[in-house]
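Example record

The entry below shows one chain as it appears in the dataset: sequence first, then structure tokens.
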Amino acid sequence: MDIETEECKMKKKYMLLTSAAALLVAAGLTGCQSGGVPDTIRVENVEGNTIEVSSTEEVRVVPDMAQITYSVYTQEADAVACQEKNQQELDKVVDLLTSYGIDEKSIQTSNYGLSPIYDWNSGKTVTGYEMDTRVIVSDVAIDQVGTLLTESIGAGINSVESVDYLCSDFDDSYEEALKLAVESARVKAQAMAEAGNCTLGDIVNIVEYGNNQSARYTGYRNMAKLESGAGAAMDTAAMAVMPGEVSVEANITVEFAIE
């Protein structure tokens, strides 16, 4: 009796499997020709049937509040005298602001930069000292800005860094901008759907992107009135302030279903 080697057994097994596969293919082709099995199987991703558009809209708003950033700069022969002079000027500015109804919580002083003044031509010789203290005044009603700037300069402020205009109704304006952005997105998506012979469906997703909220006022409006004496006298000489309008912008991406 012949004993089959392991290699011969493997070859026979492979031939049997190959023959079975050929029979299955033949049966499949016969079924396709007779209509029993479809020749194409299509798998569709329904979630991919969408149109995505981006939209940006803005609302222009007249600001009603402001934040003023300015500073007191002093220069004296020695450090102590320089610091004392700076403090005196700063106290006058703070007294002025509070006299116009600005709450002390709305007045912030910072930096307090005291440094020597060098004469570099004489080998870094100290010739004096200088100090600069920043003053930030928030919660300022827009109709007070011009007068406060003028009088603050007279009281000791000698450097004005910026006047930032704010809106107490920023949130309402931003909501309006969001609605306009959604409407604009729908118009663009409709045009794209018509161009692609599609029917535009409902919104399936909306993404809001970060927006610039630098004009957003989050405090309480300062309702203090100017003093009838000095304030009324300074109105004609007040610095001209024209706040104009600020932009409240909304940026979104909207995804619509299509049919």
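Notes for this example: The first helix runs from residue 6 to 34. The helical segments are 6-34, 79-99, 145-155, 170-195, 230-234.
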